[in-house]
Amino acid sequence: MRLPRLTGSVLSGLHCFLIAADQMSFTRAAELLCLTQSAVSHRIKNLEDALGVQLFIRQPRKLVLTEEGKRLKEVVAHNFGDIANEIRDLKTLELSGDLNVSVPPTFAQRWLLPRLKTFIDKYPALRLHLRTRNELVDFQTESFDCAVYFGDGKYTGLHTVKLMAESMLPVCSHDYAVEHGLYGNPTKLASCMLLHDAAPWARAGRNDEWQYWAQQSGIPLPEAGCTFDRSDLALQAAERGIGVAIGRESFIAEQLQTGRLVTPFALPVASPLNYYLVCRKEMSSSPRVKAFIEWLEDVIATSA
Questions:
Q1: C-beta of residue 125 within 8 angstroms of C-beta of residue 95
Q2: Cα separation of 41 and 56, whole Å?
Q3: Burial, 215: exposed, middle or buried (Cβ in 10 Å; 0-12, 13-18, 19+)?
């Protein structure tokens, strides 16, 4: 593999290659880069010509990385991450600039958003960019400064800060509890419709949250159920009397106070997972990330 001069076209080709190799799709890479598929294909062909090697084997309906492509992806992913961090650090000599944060959707809506104004008021020069997703972040290829995960805290090679624990318990509307005789009677769940968050954490099964609660509390569960891809949708369905959802205590305080949801029997279970703030080790000393972590810890301590 010959080394080309690092011209603008080569650098843009390397970035394009990295995204395409990560997605294993020129079409998906084009969507992420806001380019046409032909433009992506053209940039990668120019890069292959400049390097003198083939990076992809183009098969019908799929791409396969060559051995040279695999080697280049590993090197480029590592170095692009370092370059992005250095550029961000140069822009962060004071507490200003952009802060890119990934958070789970329901955590963002139910817990973070109601408290976020105090962070924005405290750091008015910071431009916060919040993006929601259940999947884990690839910090080597994606431009997130940090992320909030609901998980086990085992994230190899990353800086991890435990934020708070969680507990969970069944919730429903008052009318649904009365109709199904649920008050003080958890065995009546057998005749209920269960509302599942199909993605309660990364790589979870669609029944995992309910099954864990049932194992810990010793209550058998019915087969009937509906699944949703976000916990807040399952909770909204419970508010509307469709069935019984698993509520995380950090998410349901307001609904319990207003009576939109009730806990028909007191059987909370400590979750096996916790909330963590995760970032690349190099970013743990970034003033922006440190400010966000300290704010989260202060808010959690105050709430507790």
A1: yes
A2: 11
A3: exposed
* Element counts in the chain: helices (H) and strands (E): 11, 12
Specify the DSSP class assigned to residue 153. S
Torsion of CA 70, 76, 77, 78, to 10 degrees: 120
Distance of alpha carbon 170 from alpha carbon 220, whole angstroms: 13
For residue 126, give both structure tokens: 């910071």
Distance of CA 75 to the CA centre of its chain: 25
Q: Please state, in angstroms and rounded to a whole number, the distance separating the CA atoms of residues 79 and 73.
A: 10
Torsion (CA) 29, 136, 60, 14 in degrees, nearest 10 = 40
Please answer whether residues 209 and 169 qualify as being in contact, where contact means their C-beta atoms are separated by less than 8 angstroms.
no
119: number of Cβ within 10 Å: 18
pLDDT tens string 108-165: 999 999 999 999 999 998 999 999 988 899 998 898 999 999 999 999 999 999 999 9
Portion of the chain with pLDDT greater than 90, in percent = 51
What are the C-alpha distances in Å from 63 to residues 21, 23, 69, 183?
A: 9, 10, 11, 56
SS3 category, 181: coil
User: Is pLDDT of 92 > 50?
Assistant: no
pLDDT at 229: 83
Tens-place pLDDT, residues 220-242: 888 778 998 888 899 999 999 99
